[in-house]
Amino acid sequence: MIWHRPYLAMAAFTAPARPAGSLLRIIAVLIIFEIAFAIMPHIYFSLLGPDADLSTPAATVLDFGLFILPAATLILAVRLLHQRGLASMIGPRKLAVRHTVVATLAVSLVLLVQEPALLWFDLSEDLGLRNPALWLVWLLPGIVAITLQCATEELLYRGYLQQQLGALSSSRWVWMVLPSVYFGFGHLYNGDTVAAGVLWAGWATLLGLACADLTARTGTLGAAVGLHVANNIFATVIIAEAQTPSSGLALLLYPYAGDLPPDDFGLIALLTPFTLFDIVVSIMGVLVMWLAARVALRV
User: Quick one: which of 65, 244, 208, 66 has its CA closest to 145?
Assistant: First the structure.
């Protein structure tokens, strides 16, 4: 298999995936992971109760913390079906840790500049402020839980799937695009409407491509985890819509918009000027984070 610049590091990264790397085993691992992922909501609601407030800090931390279940299931499935462990999906340990730290810091610095600029567009909104003391109390547990969630997703889509597909083919359409599209489809239900779901899926696919590129350039999972963690921390602990799930860690809160009317469920909403502007901002946001990580890591 021939690898060309800038992805020479993919040769070493995919090496552990070459033995026992059949497509049927890959599909089996994905099915096992998805089953574990589907169990998460049942555990979530059984612990909180059917009438619990899902917008509290505790509920948000639990939501992200439960990713430990699919993460452990993935590690076990890879051990049983591919006869390899967690370390083989990460790359050289010390290098991966360094890449994680550098990418997290670089992307965070960019977001520290970018987020206030984006918030400027929302000054006309009646933003609420969470009790700063309560926000600080839950900040560290929240960051730990968010890191677990991001690491689980990166372990599946880049550490496992990209690695296994890269062992089968050196085509970027196979090992870069397919896992990223799969990652994007997993975000379709994040939106309240069809249009919002499509926007979520498109943004997630783009983020997946950025993480896949960084993984291939560095030969470790570290840079992808770092970018993903920095993005999700800023997207979760800075601002969110009040009274919605996973908003419990946000310092600033938009007023709750309420249930959307039926007309808002059409794809025609993707053609509005505001939506097109939002798409451009999202693309530029991912591009800037990707470039920040590349510059910091010199790849």
Answer: 65
**Assigned domain for 65 exists:** yes
What's the domain range around 186?
Answer: 9-297
Whether residue 2 is contained in a domain is answered as: no
* Half-sphere exposure (Cβ direction) of 37: Cα atoms closer than 13 Å: 13
> How many domains does the chain fold into?
1
At what angle are helices 178-185 and 194-218 packed, to 10 degrees? 150
Residue type, 223: A
The H or E element that residue 240 is part of is strand 239-241
Query: Which candidate, 184, 198, 188, places its Cα nearest to that of 266?
Result: 198
Distance between CA 107 and CA 102 in Å, rounded? 9
**HSE on the CB side for 140, CA within 13 Å?**
2
pLDDT digits (tens), the chain, 299 positions: 677 789 999 999 999 999 888 999 999 999 999 999 999 999 999 999 888 888 999 999 999 999 999 999 999 999 999 999 999 999 999 999 999 999 999 999 999 988 776 665 555 557 788 999 999 999 999 999 999 999 999 999 999 999 999 999 999 999 999 999 999 999 988 877 777 788 889 999 999 999 999 999 999 999 999 999 999 999 899 888 888 888 999 998 887 765 555 545 555 666 677 678 778 888 999 999 999 999 999 99
